Amino acid sequence: MTTLPRKESDSQKPLRLGLAGLGTVGVGVMRVLQTNAAMVTHRAGRPIEVVAVSARDRTKERGVNLSNVQWCDDPLDLVLNPDVDVIVELIGGAEGIAHKLVYAALEAEKGVVTANKALIALYGNDLAKLAKQKNIPLLFEAAVAGGIPVIKLIREALVADRLKKVGGILNGTCNYILTNMAKTGRPFQEILSETQKLGYAEADPSTDIDGFDAAHKLAILASLSFGHSVDFSGVFVEGIRDINPIDLKFAQELGYTIKLIGIAQQHEDERIELRVHPALLPSQSNLARVNGVTNAVITDGEFSGRLMLEGAGAGEGPTATAVTADIIDLARGNTVPMWGTDFTKLRPAVTIQREEFVRAYYLRLMVQDKAGVVADITAILRDNQVSLLSLLQRGEKSIENPDFPVPIILVTHKTQESSLLKALEQIRNLDAVLEEPVIIRIDNA
Ligand SMILES: NC(=O)c1ccc[n+]([C@@H]2O[C@H](COP(=O)([O-])OP(=O)(O)OC[C@H]3O[C@@H](n4cnc5c(N)ncnc54)[C@H](OP(=O)(O)O)[C@@H]3O)[C@@H](O)[C@H]2O)c1
């Protein structure tokens, strides 16, 4: 892998950046570089200068000094600009202009720094191939968990260890929504609208709340961790739209907290389990206590044991700090292969399908309160080899409306998900089961 600078004589020259995107993160990077200019120069061993920028609206007031930089309406002009050594891509999106820009930069043999998790999750393997072929660095620390230096942790600090598991709470928007639903008992839609007003959720929140943002990050972590190239399509993804306040309440009663988690785990046969879903975590566990927009990443290694880093997974300052650290690495000439090892030596990961997951499960069934219902349900579970740890029945039969549904909460022992799914097919067909069953996995993360 080529390191920048390439020649001894370059080592004192400024590293010249073309910065594409002047939104939250782009402006943050300008601010960090301007505020900490002397310190950054000192630590990088040479000045770092933004020589050209690109965004959509030239007239927008950005709150940072752009008087000495060239403006490009088209981000691709940054690549053609002979004054630019490195492209910093902070536009976002797996497709479109960000995609074109990163490929064009590598083709033109310019180093790239990006925070674009969607691009790296979906095209990381192809980009690693191109970066290796061109011998050009591509760094992406801010793409996972914003200000938490998890990529450096896995790719550098833990390089000598074999990781068995990696993941955690990877989406601040979901964590904020679930924390507030648990605190207030209010429904998902209401808390989501409030979260949007506070700016913690996008106008179109689906990438976050349907789990895809966390899945992008998990695919990147897995690619770095297990010595296999991971395909994003192998990630099982379930979001938080269907989480109901009553499940948060019952979970609490049972000693659990519900969080959206992303977990990647390598099995002994080397196959990899990749899953993003809401989970009941023991309330006393470290992950369960991570609240609000905070993210937390855990690693579990053969020699290093368990580590957990917690902090801001997004936001201007934390994310810009991570991007700038990558830029300083390039200025120093410190780079490592994109996935931490020679990409051409990575074998494609074999991923485990949902049916093969083995977990304990929380089930909520809304049933007619009549004799024999519990017996019918437990018999179906038994016949499908699903054994029960506990059962709670709540609510009283209404004299006026005997068909009014009452909840039954079941907690299973560890079981294969395929057995549970088969049992549920039969359970949902019982006349006394009045609503779609709710299943939430239990995890000790
Ligand atoms: N925000 C975070 O906390 C965070 C955390 C981790 C990673 N990231 C990643 O960082 C990247 C940037 O996120 P952000 O939050 O800073 O996004 P943002 O605030 O929406 O900013 C996007 C920037 O891209 C510019 N842009 C969009 N289309 C363009 C085009 N066709 N040509 C030129 N410029 C264009 C926009 O220009 P205008 O300003 O003129 O509209 C804007 O300046 C994304 O990949 C995101 O996933 C963000």
Structure write-up:
The chain is α/β, with parallel strands linked by helices and 445 residues long. The chain has three domains: 8-143, Rossmann fold; 155-312, Dihydrodipicolinate Reductase, domain 2 (2-Layer Sandwich); 356-442, Alpha-Beta Plaits, CATH 3.30.70. Helix content is 34%, strand content 24%. It is built from 14 helices and 19 strands. The protein has helices at 24-35, 37-44, 76-80, 96-107, 117-134, 150-157, 172-184, 188-197, 206-209, 212-225, 245-253, 316-332, 373-383, 417-427; strands at residues 15-20, 48-54, 70-71, 86-89, 111-114, 138-139, 163-169, 228-229, 236-237, 256-266, 272-282, 294-301, 305-312, 347-348, 358-367, 388-393, 406-412, 415-416, 438-442. Strands 7, 9, 10, 11, 12, 13, 15, 16, 17, 18 and 19 form an eleven-stranded mixed beta sheet that branches. The chain has a six-stranded parallel beta sheet with strand order 3-2-1-4-5-6, sandwiched between helices. α4 (96-107) runs parallel beside α5, α7 (172-184) packs across α8 (188-197) and α13 runs antiparallel to α14 (417-427). The radius of gyration is 25 Å and the shape is elongated. Residues 21-26, 54-57, 60, 75, 90-92, 97, 115-117, 142, 146, 314-315, 319 line the site of NADP nicotinamide-adenine-dinucleotide phosphate.
| Number of individual domains | 3
Number of strands: 19
Counting H and I runs of at least 4 residues, what is the number of helices?
14
Net shape:
elongated
Major sheet details: 11 strands, mixed
CATH class of the largest domain: Alpha Beta
Distance between the termini: 35 Å
